[in-house]
Amino acid sequence: MRPPDVAIIIVNWNSYDMTSQCLVSLRSLDYADFKTVVVDNGSTDGSADQLEADFPEIILLRNGENKGFTGGNNTGIIYGIENDFNYLMLLNNDTVITPSFLSHLMARMDTDPAIGAIQPKIMFNYDRSVIWNAGTSLNKFLLTFKTIGENERDEGKYDQAGEIPWITGCCFLVKTDIIREIGPLDDKFFIYYEDVDWSLKIRNGSHKLWYEPKAVIYHEAGMSDANRVDHNEGKMSPFSHYMNVRNHLFIVRRYARGINRLGAFFYQLAKLFGYTGYFLIRGRFKKMRFAWKGFAHGLSR
């Protein structure tokens, strides 16, 4: 019986070196039935043409403009649905995979038909003994979302597979039939929290989300923000602060209920005042303005 086929969707935006490193690593996969779908998100540096020339095995789709993480991936998602792939995988272009990671993910999916989506253990690429993401957690009252194990040495503490409340968009393998039900990523988010939104939609459909530590990949981390960084404003850009504040409020408005809704809104307000105090002390006034703008838009849009 033929194994299920997988469309691995990678978004490129002016990042030939990073994307090509990911594509080279995918050539080592021991799971044969996959296609790599690279979506160029309006690059202006010629990287799309170079990727197409250097990697003839890929399917290259082109967006005329930068449509963000959501719009870029949605181009690939729609392609995967229209071409009847059994599974879709979102994979960041700043990752390097291990040869067996997809086989481990697919093997786990086979053990339980209730699993709708799954993620691997994700290590930092700069130091492959340090964890970037070993699963996730959710505070239901504050509606906050955290990764497990971040910046910890991998000493076997997170080697137990299990159900998790949300999956990171860094590497998100999902059954295509589920996406036919819930729809692609919500373009309202553009970037950040779109993976949380997708995860909660999948869970609300009574499907499990799973973490599989036998599957391992490596992540550079922070590449989308690096392209926007204002070095006078610190490592995280004002744009990223805007999107994080705004999109977290979108999640609160969409999913918080009852007393949890009150707690989540008060937490967001307290967080904003905390940011404001820090930015004032550090003289990062642009970040402060963007954070408040994100809060206003998170409530009104």
Walk me through the topology.
Layout: E1 6-12, H1 16-26, E2 34-41, H2 47-54, E3 59-63, H3 68-82, E4 87-91, E5 95-97, H4 101-111, E6 115-124, E7 131-133, E8 136-139, E9 144-147, E10 162-163, E11 171-175, H5 176-182, H6 194-204, E12 208-219, H7 223-226, H8 238-255, H9 258-282, H10 285-300
Helix pairs in contact: 8-9, 8-10, 9-10
Approximate shape: globular
CATH class of the largest domain: Alpha Beta
Distance between the termini: 48 Å
CATH homology superfamily of the largest domain: Spore Coat Polysaccharide Biosynthesis Protein SpsA, Chain A
Proper CATH architecture of the largest domain:
Alpha-Beta Complex
Low-confidence stretches: 225-229
Major sheet characteristics: 10 strands, mixed
Number of strands: 12
Count of DSSP H/I helices: 10
> What percent of the residues sit in helical stretches (DSSP H or I)?
40-55%
- What radius of gyration results from the CA coordinates? 19 Å
Annotated CATH topology of the largest domain: Spore Coat Polysaccharide Biosynthesis Protein SpsA, Chain A
Structural class: alpha/beta
SSE string: EHEHEHEEHEEEEEEHHEHHHH
Give structural attributes.
12 strands; 301 residues; 2 domains; two-stranded antiparallel ribbon
Q: Can you give a write-up of this model?
A:
- By secondary structure, the chain is an alpha/beta fold.
- It has two domains: 6-222, Spore Coat Polysaccharide Biosynthesis Protein SpsA, Chain A (Alpha-Beta Complex); 238-300.
- It is built from ten helices and twelve strands.
- The chain has helices at 16-26, 47-54, 68-82, 101-111, 176-182, 194-204, 223-226, 238-255, 258-282, 285-300; strands at 6-12, 34-41, 59-63, 87-91, 95-97, 115-124, 131-133, 136-139, 144-147, 162-163, 171-175, 208-219.
- The strands form two sheets. Strands 1, 2, 3, 4, 5, 6, 7, 10, 11 and 12 form a ten-stranded mixed beta sheet that branches. Strands 8-9 form a two-stranded antiparallel sheet.
- Helix 1 links the parallel strand 1 (6-12) and strand 2.
- Helix 8 (238-255) runs parallel beside helix 10 (285-300) and helix 9 packs antiparallel against helix 10.
- It is globular, with a radius of gyration of 19 Å.
- 45% of the residues are buried.
- Residues 225-229 have low confidence and may be disordered.
